[in-house]
Model the fold of this input.
Amino acid sequence: MRDSRPQSIDILFTVMQTPERHTLQQIQQRAVALLKLNQAVAALLPAPMKPWCRVANFRQGVLVLETANASWMMRLRYEQSRLLSALRAQILPSLSSIDIRINPTLATKGHLITQNSSERQKKERGEEVKRRRLSPQSAEAIRHLAARSPEKLQKLLERLAELAGEGANPTRRGK
Done:
């Protein structure tokens, strides 16, 4: 069992049993190994799954994968046996199983990754990246609704209507 009690930072800088191996070096080597393993797993995953899954850990022959939500978890389970045999053959002969866990923070990161990559692809093809804009007709309809709304909602709707014809200007958001 590991010693998981809090330790002084000085211990990280002291030499372990072997003089050439520092604790920080071990941490760095572990992080680099997990990054390489993450790249290898991403190469084996189908393209739509890549932004939504990542390697969390590898210990005692068990690869721990994180995914954004339950639907991606189910999709990953369908790929699990193929992934397990491919990883055993190519990288990790000691791999015994794959554990899949849900990490909701991947949902926001995955969404940003897919959004940025689609915008980048459009720019590379020379296509214009279209941003959503509020039409003057929609703004007029919102103003009409605001006139019949309670005061607090009225102010918010009027602010929304002011965005018609202009881009989403982040400097105006606080006003």
The two ends are 56 Å apart (CA to CA).
